[in-house]
Each structure stands twice: as structure tokens, then as C-alpha cells.
């Protein structure tokens, strides 16, 4: 019986790069597509993160203000994307905002107030892991706001974002789109993994049961808050790694920062993964 080709300890000891390892894999005719995909992902991520460092330096130097919103259903990959964006950035000029439920005092204030104080300062990038758009989808689905509060928000948010636009704040709004089956698979993975179990909340538990209600409010949100000055960017996120790479590419593509022409990979996002919202009878989520 012919022996199945495999990598040996000696193979690993003599390689000094991913390319050399792939050459050996090819020579031995070993089929490991997952390994190749992982190596490609890691190489691309590193190249894109180098560009993010350049971008952050340019934003700081030119006193720009950038806010990036990460929205989507539970388990859509928002947190993982933010980590890949921020892991090599200077923490002095970048922040993560992930607000808990409002206090009693905050509930008596204008809804946007608690978010306004979290907006970026001059030269800063702020990542919002969920945002004021909680009131557009999660809160009405879960009964956390009343109809008047919801309606007031939907009228006010385009005006609020237009003020940010006129004040030269750059706002990027991502919606991470996943299928119902993919969400269920990720929920199950969280429950089966002790290190991820904390991610599963009572709200998550309702995600599958209230799927259609989430869809209704999501579509209402898009129809009333997708504007020319503050568009929604839809991310097809069933493949986490691809979504991470393409989100970074999109952000980089929006700025003419110093050293951009020296990038080691393409900075143009895949239009099959990243797209502006458009009304369609068929949606992934």
C-alpha cells in the first residue's frame, strides 16, 4: 500500500517562510487547502494591518476624526473584526466603545447624549461595537423601547448624522450580514467552547426565535437611515476571515493617506463581499 505523503519534522526545521513551506507541500503533492487558505489569510492580514498603522499615523497628523460603527445580528463577527483592526494600532489615539445598558440617569436624557461624548477627538479613531443603532433594531425587537422612542429616533438619526458630516467627522457604518444557519452554528460553537461561553447572552438566545422580527426592523433601519452622506456598507460575513480582510480594505480605500501607493496588496474591497445597501427581494439575513 502506497504511503500517504506527509510533512516531517525535518521539513519544518528547514523552512524559514510560509512560501518555502508551501513549496514543500506542493512538491509532496499534499492536499491541504485549509492550511493554504490560512497562510494566505495571515499574510494578507499582516499587509493590511501595516496599512492601518500608516492610516492611523496620517489621521493623527492631520487631526482627522474617524468613527467606525460595527452593527449586525448577534454572532455576526463584529468583535472579531474590531480586534483585527485595532491589534497593532497605537492605543493612545484609538478607542473601543461598547456601552452597556443605560443607567437610570441616562434613560432620562436625550438618547444620543451618551454616544456623543464617545465620539472621536481630533486625531482619533473610535470603533463602536454596536452604537446608537441599538434603538433601530435590538431595542424594538426585545421590547427595550416604546413606539414613541423608536419613531423619534428614526426621525432624528439622519439629522444627527448629517450634523456629524457637516462637522467633518468621518463616519463609516458596517452591517455584518450572516445567514440564520450560520448564526445557529456560531451560537452552538460558543456554548461548546468554555472560553467563548461568556459571549452567549439571553439576548443571543432570542436571536433565532425572533429572526423575522430582526429582519423587519433591520430593513426599516436601512430604508430610513441609508443616506448619501452616511451610507450603510453591507458585509457578507458568513466567512469570518474573508469579511475581516475586506472590511479593512474598504476602510483603507476611503482615505488618501501617506504611503498608500506602497501597499503590498490590493486595497480595493471585493464587491461580492462589501457593498452599499440596496433594496432587494433576496437578502442573506
From TrEMBL:
SUPFAM superfamilies from the UniProt entry: P-loop containing nucleoside triphosphate hydrolases (SSF52540)
Domain of life: Bacteria
Alphabetically ordered keywords of this record: Kinase, Transferase
Molecular-function GO term, any one: polyphosphate kinase activity
GO annotation, biological process: phosphorus metabolic process
UniProt-listed Gene3D superfamilies: P-loop containing nucleotide triphosphate hydrolases (3.40.50.300)
EC number: 2.7.4.-
Transmembrane segments: none
InterPro entries, alphabetized: P-loop_NTPase, Polyphosphate_phosphotransfera, PPK2-related, PPK2_PA0141
NCBIfam families membership: PPK2_P_aer
Quaternary organization: Homotetramer.
Name of the protein in question: ADP/GDP-polyphosphate phosphotransferase
Amino acid at each position: 500500500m502506497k504511503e500517504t505523503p506527509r510533512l516531517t519534522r525535518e521539513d519544518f526545521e528547514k523552512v524559514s517562510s510560509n512560501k518555502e513551506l508551501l513549496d514543500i507541500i506542493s512538491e509532496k503533492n499534499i492536499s491541504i487547502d485549509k492550511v493554504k487558505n490560512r497562510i494566505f489569510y495571515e499574510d494578507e492580514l499582516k499587509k493590511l494591518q501595516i496599512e492601518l498603522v500608516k492610516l492611523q499615523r496620517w489621521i493623527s497628523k492631520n487631526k482627522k476624526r474617524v468613527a467606525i460603527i460595527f452593527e449586525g445580528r448577534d454572532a455576526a463577527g463584529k468583535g472579531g473584526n474590531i480586534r483585527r483592526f485595532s491589534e497593532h494600532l497605537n492605543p493612545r489615539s484609538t478607542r473601543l466603545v461598547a456601552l452597556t445598558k443605560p443607567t437610570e440617569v441616562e434613560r432620562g436624557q436625550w438618547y444620543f447624549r451618551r454616544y456623543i461624548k464617545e465620539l472621536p477627538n481630533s486625531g482619533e479613531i473610535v470603533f463602536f461595537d454596536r452604537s446608537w443603532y441599538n434603538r433601530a433594531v435590538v431595542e424594538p425587537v426585545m421590547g427595550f423601547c416604546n413606539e414613541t422612542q423608536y419613531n423619534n429616533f428614526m426621525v432624528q438619526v439622519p439629522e444627527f448624522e448629517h450634523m456629524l458630516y457637516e462637522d467633518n467627522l468621518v463616519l463609516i457604518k458596517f452591517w455584518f450580514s450572516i445567514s440564520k444557519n450560520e448564526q445557529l452554528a456560531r451560537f452552538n460553537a460558543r456554548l461548546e467552547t468554555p472560553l467563548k461561553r461568556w459571549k452567549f447572552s439571553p439576548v443571543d438566545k432570542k436571536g433565532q426565535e425572533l429572526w423575522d422580527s430582526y429582519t423587519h426592523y433591520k430593513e426599516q433601519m436601512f430604508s430610513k437611515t441609508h443616506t448619501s452622506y452616511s451610507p450603510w456598507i453591507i458585509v457578507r460575513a458568513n466567512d469570518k476571515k474573508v469579511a475581516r480582510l475586506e472590511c479593512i480594505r474598504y476602510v483603507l480605500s476611503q482615505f488618501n493617506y501617506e504611503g498608500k501607493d506602497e501597499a503590498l496588496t490590493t486595497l480595493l474591497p471585493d464587491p461580492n463581499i462589501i457593498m452599499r445597501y440596496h433594496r432587494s427581494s433576496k437578502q442573506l439575513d
